[in-house]
Write a structure and sequence with these properties.
- The complex is a heterodimer of chains A (160) and B (126).
- Chain A is an alpha+beta fold.
- In chain A, a hairpin with a 6-residue loop joins strand 3 and strand 4.
- Chain A is elongated.
- Chain B is 13% helix and 26% strand.
- Chain B has 2 helices and 6 strands, in the order βββββααβ.
- Chain B is α+β, with helices and mostly antiparallel strands and 126 residues long.
- Classes of the chains: A alpha+beta (160), B alpha+beta (126).
- At the A-B interface, strand 1, strand 2, strand 3 and strand 4 of A face strand 3, helix 2 and strand 6 of B.
Chain lengths: 160, 126
Amino acid sequence: MSATALFYDAPPRTYGLDRLDMRGDNETGNDWSDLRDMVQGELARLDIPVRAGLRSVETQTGWNRGGGANLFAYRTYDAPNSGIDPVVVGVTILSDPAGESYVIRGDIAGETIGDIVFEVPAKAVVGWDQVARAARDVSQDLAARPNHVLDALRDSSRKA
Amino acid sequence: MGTRRFVFRRGSATNQALTPRQKIDTVARPGSAGGLSVTDELKGVDKAQRIDVDRLKAPLRYFPDDISAGGEAGHGVIAPANVTGDVDQAALDQWASCRQSQQDQTHPLTQLVIDAIVERDVRNKT
């Protein structure tokens, strides 16, 4: 008996390769830094209209990662000496539990009392370009809502 | 060992909200140590961070309230502990003093809290 091995030229598999960009730590630190800066740049568009409506407002930016989030970039608006809870406008990017995609979500919420003033429906995407696009869309959606921030900062029922 | 213990930190996951407030959270009350306030249940809150107490790394530790001393059931704090297992007040004060200066540099203790989060932005479904 003899066995003959047959070999076929299989076409290279390309399906799903875009996901490779999103797994593990293939992204460079600069990619996340650029994404963070882009989100912060979009959210910063809130500053002028919010300040126009509330001159005393104080703004702070920040970000972190960990605890399931690849990036949480935010902007906090505070009406000092009012006792009213600061308002956080933030975008969070998380990996889904299966590691197949990323979820981008954004909201306007109380910093310490946790009330949700406005929320953008979460978007699940695959591929770095889609992550960047979704993060930009969510950021722009939030940046178009200065009145939500102002209303929350004037709402005396939101005392922290 | 007992079952896993999860607690909730009310509010957003900003560096500031996950850091104790000076002269407010750093002060012990009857039955409750100073530290970052957390609760066992999510009541009347839209959004919170779910933290696995077992994932807290040293020097952070979870200190449940002592109900017999006036503490609140289901409430506790996360705070740095010293070698004897008590709250390290100096470390807690130092941590709180950095609350407002964490824009691009998360305080190491705040990062330990973030790393112990097992579910971000938990929504109250009740």
